[in-house]
């Protein structure tokens, strides 16, 4: 259902609320019109160029185009470009069918949404050409948004699936479980009201939410938002009619997270979106927790459990070394440590103002200034924090003293701690410990509905190939994480290989010569309430 991942590679290619529309070149060679229409199996897209050409290259490379079929005779798609074997062409058409899989932090070029589709506009832009994306509608169809669709997602499908309320729109599928639809739809409308009251009604587009249960997987759910103000939430599998308890909080706050990106990423420049994604992603997740608690979607105990998980995972990622910004540029640490930073800032702001101000006030001031200037970034955020902020302990202080000092400062802010590792701590610590000794790049694992799958690609020696793991040292990593940890600990202490058994029955022996130490988890016992004012 979720992905747990540790990254050691370069900065990420895309982020959920980034400005994804391709800016027009200073000297565009020509103009192009792009028209989309519903077609059997997907969406047919027609490009009409102002002048003939022998090659038309697509601008955006962070798109998977393996479900695109050129239907214009004599033309081919290869290496991200349309070519005509030397013969000039001025018009071409491509049939796009839905992507076959969700890929980490990559926008889908086309996804299903009930009887309709969601098309990613930036995937259609061509190098050296201004472009306008429009839709050719069949009877009973609607397209949203109605302007600047090439900058983000475009929904094309039945008008009956669209509901508008108080300046926002929601697209639902009749196949989606009613309880899921109601939770997300009502949360989306409530988020517009809450964030609008706290941050101002400044959105440049009509906020639109699309709820789809047609995701190809492998993850249980994914969400992202583009600069057209359109949020796409995609669910995979049969579990969503009756979701398990462990996804109650992330499911309840998912739409609140994505809705916050309409304010901190739509219509305002993010100066550090690639180098410090923890800033906008961390606040989107923390805002979702705080707003959901304040609106009664989740309770304080559920929010505290979520904070605990973030604090624990951030600690696991940063460790005791000095701060390395590379560690917060990819993977789950963006969210884990990003939430911790915003929580620290919020605690300090509320304490210093006797509850009259909170982190939303900081962000409103920063976003207002950013819209009137050159955007916002880490420097702008940190300039608004309290003098001698505890955030500096996390990010600037000596790594060896980080966690002891952080616990002391948090205790002074009314937080209590207890050392209590959970199943996830044992699972992550053991799997990452062995993987670190074999992987040369990023590493991690998926916790899917059907079990655990390593995310190792071709970079982890004997663990490469993204194997699905049934057992580690004869213990199921999903249901017997502590027993697995202790077995791995014993093997590593004896410098013996750790044995993985795949679902196919293959045995993988991964060398382990480094000592595996018990995870240290400073769990939050009690903390000041997250609930805050809604106005």
Provide structural commentary.
The protein is an alpha+beta fold. The protein has three domains: 28-267, no CATH class; 270-416, no CATH class; 423-510, Pdz3 Domain (Roll). It contains eleven helices and 25 strands. It has helices at residues 178-199, 248-264, 278-294, 300-318, 333-352, 359-372, 378-383, 391-395, 402-412, 423-436, 481-493; strands spanning 2-6, 30-39, 42-53, 55-57, 68-70, 76-78, 81-83, 89-96, 110-113, 116-120, 129-136, 141-144, 153-158, 162-165, 168-171, 208-212, 221-225, 230-235, 416-419, 443-448, 451-455, 468-472, 498-502, 507-510, 522-526. The strands form six sheets. Strands 1-20-21-22-23-24 form a six-stranded antiparallel beta sheet. Strands 5-8-3-2-11 form a five-stranded mixed beta sheet, with no helix packed on it. Strands 14-15-16-18-17 form a five-stranded mixed beta sheet, covered by helices on one side. Helix 1 runs parallel beside helix 2 (248-264), helix 4 (300-318) packs across helix 5 (333-352) and helix 10 (423-436) packs parallel to helix 11.
The fraction of residues assigned to DSSP E strands is 15-25%
Helix share, percent: 25-40%
Task: Output the strand order for the largest sheet.
Answer: 1-20-21-22-23-24
Shape: globular
Q: Quaternary arrangement of the chains shown?
A: single chain
Number of helices: 11
Task: Look at the structure and give the mean pLDDT.
Answer: 90
Weakly predicted, low-confidence segments: 1-28
Q: Give Rg in angstroms.
A: 24 Å
Main sheet attributes: strand count, strand direction, barrel closure: 6 strands, antiparallel
Instruction: Give the tally of β-strands.
Output: 25
End-to-end separation in angstroms reads: 35 Å
Instruction: Report the structural category.
Output: alpha+beta
Count of separate structural domains: 3
């Amino acid at each position: 259902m979720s992905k747990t991942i540790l990254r050691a590679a370069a900065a990420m290619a895309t982020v959920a609320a980034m400005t994804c529309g391709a800016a027009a070149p200073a000297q565009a060679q020509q103009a192009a019109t792009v028209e989309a229409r519903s077609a059997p199996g997907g969406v047919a897209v027609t490009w009409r160029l102002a002048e003939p050409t022998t090659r038309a290259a697509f601008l955006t490379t962070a798109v998977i185009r393996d479900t695109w079929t050129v239907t214009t005779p004599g033309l081919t798609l290869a290496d991200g470009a349309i070519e005509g074997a030397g013969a000039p062409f001025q018009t071409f058409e491509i049939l796009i069918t839905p992507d076959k899989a969700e890929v980490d932090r990559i926008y889908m070029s086309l996804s299903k949404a009930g009887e309709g589709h969601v098309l990613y506009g930036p995937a259609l832009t061509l190098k050296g050409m201004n472009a306008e994306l429009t839709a050719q509608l069949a009877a009973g169809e609607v397209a949203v948004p109605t302007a600047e669709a090439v900058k983000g997602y475009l929904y094309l499908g039945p008008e009956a699936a669209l509901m508008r309320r108080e300046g926002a729109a929601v697209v639902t599928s009749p196949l989606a479980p009613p309880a899921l639809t109601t939770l997300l739809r009502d949360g989306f409308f409530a988020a517009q009201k809450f964030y609008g009251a706290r941050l101002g009604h400044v959105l440049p587009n009509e906020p639109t939410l699309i709820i789809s249960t047609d995701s190809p997987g492998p993850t249980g759910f994914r969400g992202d938002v583009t600069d057209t103000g359109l949020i796409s939430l995609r669910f995979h599998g049969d579990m969503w009619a009756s979701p398990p308890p462990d996804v109650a909080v992330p499911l309840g706050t998912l739409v609140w997270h994505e809705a916050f990106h309409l304010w901190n990423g739509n219509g305002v420049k993010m100066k550090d979106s690639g180098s410090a994604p923890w800033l906008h992603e961390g606040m989107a997740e923390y805002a979702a927790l705080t707003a959901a608690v304040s609106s009664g979607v989740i309770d304080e105990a559920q929010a505290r459990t979520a904070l605990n998980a973030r604090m624990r995972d951030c600690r696991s990622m940063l460790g005791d070394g000095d701060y390395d910004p590379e560690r917060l540029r990819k993977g789950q640490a963006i969210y884990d440590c990003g939430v911790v930073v915003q929580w620290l800032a919020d605690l300090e702001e509320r304490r210093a103002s006797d509850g009259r101000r909170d982190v939303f006030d900081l962000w409103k001031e920063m976003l207002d200034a950013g819209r009137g200037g050159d955007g916002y970034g880490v420097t702008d955020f940190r300039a608004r924090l309290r003098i001698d902020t505890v955030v500096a302990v996390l990010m600037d202080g000596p790594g060896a003293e980080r966690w002891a000092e952080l616990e002391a400062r948090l205790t002074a802010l009314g937080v209590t701690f207890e050392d209590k590792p959970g199943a996830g701590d044992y699972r992550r610590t053991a799997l990452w410990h062995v993987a670190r000794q074999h992987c040369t790049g990023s590493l991690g694992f998926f916790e899917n509905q059907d079990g655990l799958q390593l995310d190792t690609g071709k970079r982890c020696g004997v663990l490469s190939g993204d194997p699905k793991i049934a057992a580690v040292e004869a213990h199921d990593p999903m249901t017997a994480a502590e027993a697995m940890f202790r077995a791995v600990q014993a093997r590593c202490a004896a410098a013996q290989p750790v044995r993985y058994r795949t679902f196919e029955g293959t045995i993988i022996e991964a060398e382990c010569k480094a000592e595996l130490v018990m995870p240290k988890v400073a769990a939050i016992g009690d903390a000041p309430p997250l609930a805050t004012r809604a106005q």
